[in-house]
Write a structure and sequence with these properties.
globular; 17% strand; 250 residues; alpha+beta; 4-stranded antiparallel sheet; 8 strands
Length: 250
């Protein structure tokens, strides 16, 4: 009888905790929509997942990206189709709301409010690249697309031995990164929409593109990441790492 009462109390207590977590929210502006959305703050389960991923090598680093992606999606109480460029600024605001503004880098405390403000006007959300008679339209992918392709990367990495991962992981990840940002490819009168292709078909197409065209796509991706990097960098060039330790309170 006592156990039944205790179990009932625990269940009620957990339900109450869930309600508290759901009520602990913050309003954050989503850069790609320029509108505010309501987000729940970080929770312990999310932090544990990140800490676990830190011990899983290259696969863990990719998995951590999906954990952060899912935090943005799952913690949002509104219906938003997030772009990948929304992730960093939203995570920064969630970190401030959950654990405070203080962030330690190399044993020195920084104030997250002193970081440069992310300005999506500096992000080229779409671009067209032409090379060797091929026209490629690129765009910033959605977080859903990023999650899907990251899962494929993890599967492919899992097929490699540790030695093969050391040699091939950078090339593999870079190829899939390009896949995320390509929308259509036009050659003469023929246009190929990447929305109509599976991930592995997309990889095959990317691998057949001229190297100069691939490099131009990488330059476009780098320009987007540069904007993100600026909003994570303090005046003295100290950088906030979005990793397993990001959620920790200082």
């Amino acid at each position: 009888m006592i156990n039944k009462v205790m179990n009932a109390d625990v269940k009620t207590f957990l339900d109450d905790l869930k309600q508290v977590n759901n009520a602990s929210t913050v309003s954050i502006k989503v850069p790609s929509t320029s509108k505010k959305a309501t987000f729940r703050k970080f929770n312990v389960t999310q932090q544990k997942k990140l800490l676990k991923s830190a011990f899983d090598g290259v696969q863990g680093s990719i998995e951590s990206l999906n954990i952060f992606n899912n935090i943005v999606k799952d913690n949002c109480q509104d219906d938003v189709d997030f772009l990948l460029c929304d992730r960093i600024p939203i995570l920064l605001e969630l970190r401030k709301a959950t654990s405070g503004n203080t962030f330690s880098i190399d044993e020195k405390d920084y104030n997250l409010t002193e970081l440069p403000i992310y300005n999506i006007k500096n992000v080229n959300l779409t671009t067209t690249i032409e090379d060797s008679g091929i026209e490629v339209t690129c765009k910033v992918p959605t977080i859903d697309t990023d999650i899907k392709i990251n899962k494929k990367i993890i599967v492919e990495l899992g097929k490699l031995t540790p030695e093969q991962q050391q040699k091939q992981s950078i090339e593999l990840v870079l190829t899939y990164e390009i896949v995320k940002f390509v929308d259509t490819i036009k050659l003469g009168e023929t246009s190929l929409s990447f929305n109509d292709l599976g991930v592995y078909e997309k990889v095959k197409v990317i691998n057949e593109l001229p190297l100069s065209l691939n490099n131009s796509i990488i330059d476009y991706i780098s320009s987007i990441k540069e904007v993100e990097d600026k909003c994570l960098t303090f005046d003295d060039d100290a950088v906030v790492d979005i990793d397993a330790g990001f959620l920790a309170a200082e």
